[in-house]
């Protein structure tokens, strides 16, 4: 009989992780099964290497997406959500969302239903990975994307629908707003409460991981009462909850001659379009980036390009009660089932998950052995097409190469 147990979480958010732990996983659609098959052995090998059998993961498959529908008739079965709540930590592959029609995103629904309000996406250079940047070694940013509201809240009405027409009439008659007849409508709700908790988690992350700044990324000049308010509420959260460890960029210039006092995190803001060029020209000026949902979606894929592309981009969705780890990218349908793509995105998401559980020795081993594999010129197609003379591996072979490094002598990685 299995001795595996669930992770538990106390009222302060502290995890209690048993040595033999059950972790639910969703394989995902498209390339999901390929990258999961390459990832799981890497996580198991790193845990075995680091803890010599004292710690072990028992994987529990839960269904969602196409597999969920085939098995249960539901795209996102309630029992899958319940398993994540019960086990506190889970990992998932990407799930397909149809464009312009059909069901709403299952990925977004998971985040909203479980209130996983911070989407955390580190963008860190792995030596040896091809990059379009002159100094990729200077790139060390982490996107904190608000995950529960903004245009992703799902309040949308199709052009010509009775709901859209009713809303257009209401806005015209009661609010004096002109909207073209027959327009589709999307609503962009953003609140102080949800902004402030996102900002608090971004500052705590910066404090705990030694980042010198948190930048609020917004389009507040145009959308004053949503994106502009996001910036205002972000500064308020910093002042009200972290006044002892933060200083604003204005204060740095007005009071401290342009040099932030030792140990203080600088809170600054940048308008979104302009930020896209500054992160390319001077990435070293940015650490944690806190941003609303839509901006966060855009900037996280754009930043991934600086460190090798989406195949290298991990992520996590974190709330007060549970966390779900997943790659930044989607299902890449043209590569589905071809055992071709780069599983590093999910492998590195798995390393983030192990960090979250406090199993940092295993997480560090994964990161160093992945870097060693790339350094040896063993890469998947996405990196191979940018590195002359590299050895192109398929998805599973790349995972196996990392496992081989993990199991080799310690000095190798
Ligand atoms: N969290 C989630 O589950 C997400 C789901 N989606 C969904 O995924 C579907 C497809 O979305 P799409 O916009 O095409 O974006 P995708 O992220 O799925 O992929 C687009 C391209 O990115 C590159 N890429 C992605 N993943 C990898 C990888 N692991 N290794 C190497 N290259 C990779 C490939 O580039 P190339 O063609 O250059 O080789 C691929 O064709 C949609 O239904 C979308 O809604 C999207 C994002 C997140
Ligand atoms: O849910 C989806 O289909 C897309 C989500 C997405 O692009 C993201 O989470 O970055
Ligand atoms: Mg995205």
TrEMBL record:
<feature type="binding site">
    <location>
        <position position="105"/>
    </location>
    <ligand>
        <name>D-threo-isocitrate</name>
    </ligand>
</feature>
<dbReference type="InterPro" id="IPR024084">
    <property type="entry name" value="IsoPropMal-DH-like_dom"/>
</dbReference>
<feature type="binding site">
    <location>
        <begin position="329"/>
        <end position="335"/>
    </location>
    <ligand>
        <name>NADP(+)</name>
    </ligand>
</feature>
<feature type="binding site">
    <location>
        <position position="342"/>
    </location>
    <ligand>
        <name>NADP(+)</name>
    </ligand>
</feature>
<keyword id="KW-0460">Magnesium</keyword>
<keyword id="KW-0521">NADP</keyword>
<feature type="binding site">
    <location>
        <position position="111"/>
    </location>
    <ligand>
        <name>D-threo-isocitrate</name>
    </ligand>
</feature>
<keyword id="KW-0464">Manganese</keyword>
<feature type="modified residue" description="N6-succinyllysine">
    <location>
        <position position="92"/>
    </location>
</feature>
<feature type="binding site">
    <location>
        <position position="385"/>
    </location>
    <ligand>
        <name>NADP(+)</name>
    </ligand>
</feature>
<comment type="subunit">
    <text>Homodimer.</text>
</comment>
<dbReference type="GO" id="GO:0006099">
    <property type="term" value="P:tricarboxylic acid cycle"/>
</dbReference>
<dbReference type="GO" id="GO:0000287">
    <property type="term" value="F:magnesium ion binding"/>
</dbReference>
<dbReference type="GO" id="GO:0051287">
    <property type="term" value="F:NAD binding"/>
</dbReference>
<feature type="binding site">
    <location>
        <position position="96"/>
    </location>
    <ligand>
        <name>NADP(+)</name>
    </ligand>
</feature>
<dbReference type="InterPro" id="IPR019818">
    <property type="entry name" value="IsoCit/isopropylmalate_DH_CS"/>
</dbReference>
<keyword id="KW-0329">Glyoxylate bypass</keyword>
<protein>
    <recommendedName>
        <fullName>Isocitrate dehydrogenase [NADP]</fullName>
        <ecNumber>1.1.1.42</ecNumber>
    </recommendedName>
</protein>
<feature type="site" description="Critical for catalysis">
    <location>
        <position position="152"/>
    </location>
</feature>
<feature type="domain" description="Isopropylmalate dehydrogenase-like">
    <location>
        <begin position="22"/>
        <end position="402"/>
    </location>
</feature>
<feature type="binding site">
    <location>
        <position position="107"/>
    </location>
    <ligand>
        <name>D-threo-isocitrate</name>
    </ligand>
</feature>
<dbReference type="InterPro" id="IPR004439">
    <property type="entry name" value="Isocitrate_DH_NADP_dimer_prok"/>
</dbReference>
<feature type="binding site">
    <location>
        <position position="297"/>
    </location>
    <ligand>
        <name>Mg(2+)</name>
    </ligand>
</feature>
<feature type="modified residue" description="N6-acetyllysine">
    <location>
        <position position="134"/>
    </location>
</feature>
<dbReference type="GO" id="GO:0006097">
    <property type="term" value="P:glyoxylate cycle"/>
</dbReference>
<keyword id="KW-0816">Tricarboxylic acid cycle</keyword>
<dbReference type="GO" id="GO:0004450">
    <property type="term" value="F:isocitrate dehydrogenase (NADP+) activity"/>
</dbReference>
<keyword id="KW-0479">Metal-binding</keyword>
<comment type="similarity">
    <text>Belongs to the isocitrate and isopropylmalate dehydrogenases family.</text>
</comment>
<feature type="site" description="Critical for catalysis">
    <location>
        <position position="219"/>
    </location>
</feature>
<feature type="binding site">
    <location>
        <position position="381"/>
    </location>
    <ligand>
        <name>NADP(+)</name>
    </ligand>
</feature>
<feature type="binding site">
    <location>
        <position position="121"/>
    </location>
    <ligand>
        <name>D-threo-isocitrate</name>
    </ligand>
</feature>
<keyword id="KW-0560">Oxidoreductase</keyword>
<dbReference type="Pfam" id="PF00180">
    <property type="entry name" value="Iso_dh"/>
</dbReference>
<feature type="binding site">
    <location>
        <position position="145"/>
    </location>
    <ligand>
        <name>D-threo-isocitrate</name>
    </ligand>
</feature>
<feature type="modified residue" description="Phosphoserine">
    <location>
        <position position="105"/>
    </location>
</feature>
């Amino acid at each position: 009989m299995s001795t595996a147990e669930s992770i538990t979480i106390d009222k302060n958010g502290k995890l209690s992780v048993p040595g033999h732990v059950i972790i639910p996983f969703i394989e995902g659609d498209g390339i999901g099964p390929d990258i999961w098959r390459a990832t799981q052995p890497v996580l198991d090998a790193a845990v075995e290497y680091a803890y010599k059998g004292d710690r072990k993961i028992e994987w529990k498959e839960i269904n969602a997406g196409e597999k969920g529908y085939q098995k249960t008739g539901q795209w996102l079965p309630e029992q899958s959500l319940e398993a994540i709540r019960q086990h506190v930590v889970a990992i998932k592959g990407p799930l397909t969302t149809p464009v312009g029609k059909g069901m709403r995103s299952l990925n977004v629904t998971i985040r909203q239903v479980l209130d996983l309000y911070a989407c955390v996406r580190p963008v860190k250079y792995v030596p040896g990975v091809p990059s379009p940047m002159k100094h990729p070694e200077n790139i060390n940013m982490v996107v904190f994307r608000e995950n529960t509201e903004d245009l992703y809240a799902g309040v949308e009405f199709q052009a010509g629908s009775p709901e859209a027409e009713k809303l257009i009439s209401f806005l015209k008659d009661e609010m004096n707003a002109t909207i073209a007849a027959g327009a589709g409508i999307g609503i962009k709700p953003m609140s102080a409460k949800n902004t402030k908790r996102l900002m608090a988690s971004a500052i705590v992350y910066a404090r705990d991981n030694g980042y010198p700044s948190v930048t609020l990324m917004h389009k507040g000049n145009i959308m004053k009462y949503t994106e502009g308010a996001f910036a205002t509420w972000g500064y308020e959260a910093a002042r009200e909850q972290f006044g002892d460890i933060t200083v604003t960029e204005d204060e740095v210039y007005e009071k401290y001659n342009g040099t932030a006092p030792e140990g203080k995190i600088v809170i600054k803001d940048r308008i979104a379009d302009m930020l896209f060029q500054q992160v390319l020209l001077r990435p070293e000026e940015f650490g944690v980036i806190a941003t609303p949902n839509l901006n966060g979606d855009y900037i996280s894929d754009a930043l991934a390009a600086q460190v090798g592309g989406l195949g290298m981009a991990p992520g996590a969705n974190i709330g007060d009660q549970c966390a779900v780890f997943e790659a930044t990218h989607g299902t890449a349908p043209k590569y589905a089932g071809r055992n071709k793509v780069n599983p590093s995105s999910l492998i590195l998401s798995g390393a983030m998950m192990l960090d979250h559980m406090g199993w940092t020795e295993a997480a560090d081993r994964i990161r160093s052995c992945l870097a060693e594999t790339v350094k040896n010129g063993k890469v998947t197609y996405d990196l191979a097409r940018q590195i002359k003379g590299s050895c192109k591996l398929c998805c599973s072979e790349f995972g196996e190469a990392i496992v081989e490094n993990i199991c080799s002598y310690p000095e190798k990685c």
